[in-house]
Specification:
- It is a single chain.
- The protein has helices spanning 201-207, 239-249, 266-278, 317-328, 338-344, 362-374, 388-430, 440-457, 466-511, 519-533, 539-556, and strands spanning 19-23, 29-37, 40-43, 55-58, 70-85, 91-100, 112-113, 121-126, 135-145, 150-155, 170-173, 179-188, 194-200, 215-216, 256-260, 308-311, 350-354, 378-383, 431-432, 537-538.
- It is α+β, with helices and mostly antiparallel strands.
- The chain has a six-stranded antiparallel barrel with strand order 1-2-3-6-5-4. Strands 8-9-10-13-12-11 form a six-stranded antiparallel β-barrel.
- α9 (466-511) runs parallel beside α11.
Length: 569
């Protein structure tokens, strides 16, 4: 039980007592909810679409016997934000708070927790129609989607898609047992892909500020990094800098970005604070999700662009590390060094660290940042001066890793244009397949990319766009690997057909021993044999020829023992 009342540990896989089943007046299940306080339930706005209606909140996990406790509930005043679409068509809102006619015991409640979202394994307890007593669903958080700060979930298995009756369910982090958000919807697209969506605690608090009293965990952005009223002035925006920050916050492919914001550069500092604020799920304003706003194009990042923004001035690397570990949810083994806990974690963050050179121990902080980078975390590092620490950070966190990344890409493209291409060419020379063609155009692009990268390695050209070439390598390798797989299956089929033809030829010779030759049947076998030996082999035509031969052999073969006169098959 939390110190201020309520359950904040959902590690048990039993029915959680904070999980609420919500019914309409007609008795049909409308969805789910989260009991945040004895008399407040958080749910989706679309679950209680009629704001003036009365609903029934049922507490399945609190039932000591067969009778399920139920309480009348209604929308709590203005605590209702409907599901809307912004100018881009992205969903926004869809949260509501219900008031209960009679309070529930404080021990049944839970709290929301601010925690990083991406890559986390989570569980939800909802009330789909086929399991209206409640059932657990498992998923993994894929990442943010849209501009409102909502998050996409990928079901652990197809049967675990959060379907109707799950909207409003609490999303519990499997690692910590904390409720970190609420299920919004579950859909399947026309390609058969299954997705669910959730609103994290920060996004819920932004839409319903009154929920902050039942939300724990420090906010993602340190106070000194938040936009001020003065920052909103048009003169305090460095538009090119804002566009570069937005590109990085929307994942432009750079894992580490290092920027200089000198002391006294008020415009650049305000631009940085603006980007950090807009990219935070909780601090983002309603105006910032509307294209009708006066923000210059390309300067408004989506909510959830970062997981944490830390002002490093005066802080030790240990304190900064603890701040990061807290955001990751690494509360286990607090006595272990923070770097070890981060190194062992599966969760990754997008972290902004401002004033790296103003930290209490910049060299120690750089070591922590190197650990974060090695684990796949994305880092935006802001320095005040281009001192020795700045240059060391650029070399160790950007220049050298980029050189290694470029070398790995060169090696991969060499594999694609060398062994992989040779394998494809050998397969194409052996068998023919409809829709599979030589990868000439792809290989031309891969060779051109390889030449550009080699030139850059030798210092004879500009720094190439590694993200673009990595994507090219992914596309080309995927297409070639798929083609090789298709051709390999045809090669296997050709070998099967060759063995079948040989076997039937033996069967035929045994059947006609001492008899007159069947020239027509021999011609069928010869045709099939020639098609199988041709290069490239038309497996489809060979298959038809083998089938024609085996059918004739079957018609002329004597009955097999025990088959009562039936022909061999």
């Amino acid at each position: 039980m939390a110190a201020d009342g309520g359950v904040d540990d959902g590690s048990s896989l039993g029915t959680p007592c904070w999980a609420v089943r919500i019914r309409r007046a007609d008795g049909k299940i409308a969805g789910a909810g989260i009991l945040l306080s004895p008399d407040r339930v958080l749910t989706c706005a679309h679950v209680v679409a009629d704001r003036d209606a009365r609903f029934t909140a049922e507490f399945v996990g609190a039932a000591p016997g067969l009778a399920v406790p139920s309480v009348t509930a209604w929308v709590d005043g203005d605590a209702y934000v409907p599901n809307t679409r912004d100018a881009d068509g992205d969903p926004s809102g869809d949260v509501a708070l219900l008031r209960l006619e009679r309070p529930r015991p404080p021990g049944e409640t839970t709290l929301l927790h601010r925690l990083s979202a991406t890559d986390r394994a989570v569980q939800m307890y909802g009330f789909p129609y086929d399991h209206n007593g409640g059932i657990w669903f498992r998923a993994v958080i894929v990442g943010g989607c849209g501009r409102d700060g909502q998050v996409q979930l990928s079901p652990t298995s197809p049967g675990e898609l959060a379907s109707a009756g799950c909207s409003g369910s609490g999303v519990m982090d499997t690692l910590t047992g904390k409720v970190i958000g609420m299920v919004l919807s579950g859909i399947g697209d026309r390609h058969g892909n299954l997705f669910s969506f959730m609103s994290p605690a920060e996004t819920i608090v932004r839409h319903l500020p009154e929920v902050d009293r039942w939300t724990r965990g420090r906010t993602a952005v340190d106070d000194r990094l938040r936009s001020t009223r003065k920052d909103a002035a048009e003169a305090l925006l460095d538009e090119p800098f804002a566009q570069r920050l937005t590109d990085w916050l929307q994942d432009d492919g750079q894992q580490v970005k290092i920027s200089l914001v000198p002391v006294g550069d008020t415009v650049r500092a305000a631009t940085l604070r603006r980007a950090i604020t807009l990219a935070d799920r909780e601090l983002r304003t309603a105006a910032s999700v509307n294209r009708a706003s006066l923000d210059p194009p390309g300067t408004v990042p989506s909510a959830g662009g970062h997981d944490l923004a830390v002002d490093a001035a005066g802080l030790t690397s240990a304190r900064i590390g603890e701040r990061i570990a807290e955001r990751m949810g690494l509360w286990q083994h607090p006595a272990d060094p923070v770097a070890e806990r981060i190194r062992a974690a599966d969760v990754t963050l997008t972290v902004v660290v401002v004033g790296v050179d103003e930290a209490a121990d910049p060299p120690a902080l750089l070591e922590l940042l190197k650990t974060l980078r090695a684990k796949g975390n994305r880092l935006l590092l802001v320095f005040r001066t281009a001192d020795a620490t700045y240059h060391r950070a650029r070399h160790e966190l950007v220049v050298e890793p980029e050189r290694e990344r470029r070398a790995r890409l060169v090696e991969r493209l060499e594999q694609i244009t060398g062994p992989l291409a040779q394998t494809l060419h050998r397969r194409l020379a052996a068998v023919r397949a409809e829709g599979v063609r030589p990868a000439d155009a792809d290989l031309v692009r891969a060779h051109a990319a390889l030449a550009t990268l080699r030139l850059a390695q030798d210092g004879g050209g500009p720094s190439p766009d590694l993200v673009r070439y990595e994507r090219l390598a992914d596309r080309v390798a995927a297409r070639m690997t798929t083609a090789i797989g298709t051709l390999d299956r045809l090669l296997e089929r050709r070998e099967e057909l060759d063995g079948r033809l040989r076997g039937y030829h033996v069967l035929h010779l045994d059947a006609v021993h001492g008899k007159e030759e069947d020239l027509a049947l021999d011609a069928l076998r010869l045709r099939a044999h020639e098609l199988l030996q041709a290069r490239p082999c038309d497996v489809k035509a060979a298959e038809a020829a083998v089938e024609a031969y085996t059918r004739h052999v079957d018609r002329g073969a004597p009955p097999r023992q025990g088959q009562g006169g039936a022909s061999a098959s």
